[in-house]
Design goal:
The chain is of the alpha+beta class. The protein has helices spanning about 1-10, 10-65, 190-235, 255-305, 310-335, 350-355, 385-400, 445-450, 455-465, 485-495, and strands at about 75-80, 85, 115-120, 140-150, 180-185, 345, 365-370, 380, 405-410, 415-420, 470-475, 480-485. Strands 2-1-5-4-3 form a five-stranded antiparallel sheet. Strand 9 and strand 10 form a beta hairpin. It is rod-shaped and about 165 Å long. Its main location: membrane.
């Protein structure tokens, strides 16, 4: 069960859905926080502009000794000596700003100039008035508008000393002074608006996260459907029979590229498999022929032992055995070429000179070296690899030459160029690539008679390619091998 859950939630589809959900959660949470803050700031700016207008209007009314603002507006009127002559609403004794300090405006505060101060909210010492139960009681500082009246003459009795509808109080005349008015608006409406935004975001956030996760799950499943088809098709491939290609999605996206690459890989694998089967078939045929000849000769000799030239029989058997050994060695070398490691660096010039000098004298064609670099020619490869290239090229040239075989070694830029030519009939243009295939003989009868295995040039190209070079027929009877020169070793060898 745990493994099933781990596989289900560890799938690409699940990871895509979870990632999309987390991204949505982060974006919506950050966006909701920013929107909530912006709404709160907009409402605060709107309230501040309103209370600044109210403060200026109240100061004008006080100066004209008219009745103050409506009873629904929270304001306080403070004399020059700091005495609070009137307070209502949030400034009342049991209001949230009832205990807030309300000092008179400083002397530099110009008449009817509106300033803004911030008072601690709430400022009560005990429980709030039930009228303000809808307010947020989170400690904060509330913006309050402050305005100053012009100096009123001594003995003035203003209407603000008496709430609307009440009898005029019996009090002594007031000295000449300016009055400071404080005006504030209840933050209840703003708090409710912010709370509404918070509640809306509270249910929209999980809904949006769930919606995006489901959509991501469905879209990922649809997008990965071709991948599942590819997986199923690849799982059905076996080592026998034709390899079916996977379907290529028509969308032209990354999955199309993946399917195309997989099909190209399958093409190469099928070609390699066909080449391997052809190689095994050819090798079996090549091994069967000398074995059959050897067996037949020995069986005939044993059936009629009298009068047999036994030294000749043994010599023929040894010749067939030698051909089998050479063929087996070539097959083993070709197998090793498919699993090569990083080769060392060897001087090709010395290998060419040594292999030509060590050729046994025969009555066949003459081997000459027309061009040979005087200095070292360091190339990748072991001495055995390079010797095999030179020997196979010489064997092939001697087998087809009439009287002369020419060897050349030059350095062309970053490549060492080894050429072996003969004065034989040459290789037709149509066969210049085919001669490098395994077990290919253009002159089947003569090659078998002279001991050729049909693997010489295939080994030459295999070694050259493994060393980072090339091998090909560049002229009618010239085989050219190009190997990369190791510049580091060449610079060290330079005088």
């Amino acid at each position: 069960m745990d493994r099933l859950l781990a596989r289900r939630f560890g799938s690409v589809r699940a990871r895509a859905a979870i990632g999309a959900a987390l991204a949505t959660l982060a974006v919506f949470a950050a966006g909701g926080y920013l929107v909530r803050g912006e709404v709160a700031r907009d409402l605060e700016r709107s309230d501040l502009e309103a209370v600044r207008e109210d403060a200026n209007l109240l100061a004008v009314r006080v100066s004209r000794e008219s009745h103050a603002l409506d009873a629904g507006t929270s304001y306080a009127i403070v004399g020059a000596d700091g005495h609070v002559w009137f307070r209502n609403g949030m400034f009342s004794g049991n209001g949230p700003l009832g205990m807030a300090p309300l000092p008179p405006a400083p002397a530099d505060h110009r008449d009817y100039d509106v300033r803004t101060v911030r008072l601690a909210f709430p400022a009560w010492a005990s429980g709030p008035d039930p009228y303000y139960s809808g307010l947020s009681t989170t400690p904060r500082r509330l913006a309050v508008a402050v305005c100053v009246t012009e100096e009123l003459p001594a003995g003035s009795v203003t209407a603000f000393l008496t709430p609307a509808g009440a009898a005029a109080p019996d009090q002594p005349p007031l000295p000449a002074q300016r009055f400071t008015v404080y005006v504030v608006r209840s933050p209840q409406a703003a708090d409710e608006a912010v709370a509404s935004v918070t509640r809306t975001a509270g249910w929209m956030l999980p809904a949006a996260v769930l919606f995006v996760a489901v959509v991501a799950w469905l879209v990922a499943g649809r997008a990965l459907r071709p991948v599942e088809a590819m997986r199923a098709r690849m799982a059905s491939i076996t080592g026998s029979g034709a390899v079916r290609r996977i379907p290529v999605p028509p969308a032209g996206d990354e999955l199309t590229d993946l399917a195309t690459t997989i099909n190209a890989t399958l093409d190469r694998l099928q070609s390699a498999l066909a080449e391997q089967r052809r190689f095994v078939s050819d090798a079996s045929h090549e091994l069967r022929t000398p074995l059959t000849t050897l067996r037949s000769a020995l069986e005939i000799a044993l059936a009629h032992p009298d009068g047999r030239d036994w030294p000749a029989v043994v010599s023929a058997a040894l010749a067939d055995t030698g051909r089998l050994q050479r063929l087996t060695d070539d097959l083993l070398l070709l197998a090793r070429l498919d699993h090569g490691s990083r080769p060392p660096v060897t001087d090709l010039a010395s290998v060419v000179a040594e292999r030509v000098a060590e050729r046994p004298p025969t009555d066949g064609p003459t081997i000459t070296v027309s061009t040979l670099e005087t200095g070292a020619v360091p190339v990748p490869g072991t001495e055995l690899d390079l010797s095999r290239i030179v020997d196979n090229l010489l064997d092939n040239a001697v087998r087809h030459a009439r009287a002369l075989v020419d060897v050349g070694l030059t350095v062309d830029g970053a490549a060492a160029v080894l050429t072996v030519s003969d004065d034989g009939p040459g290789i037709p243009v149509a066969d210049r690539e085919r001669v490098f295939d395994r077990f290919v003989r253009l002159d089947e009868a003569r090659d078998r008679e002279q001991g050729g295995t049909g693997l010489g040039l295939a080994i030459v190209r295999g070694i050259a390619v493994r060393l980072g070079g090339t091998a090909g027929v560049t002229d009618t009877a010239t085989v050219t091998v190009r190997l990369p020169v190791d510049r580091t070793a060449l610079d060290r060898a330079a005088p």
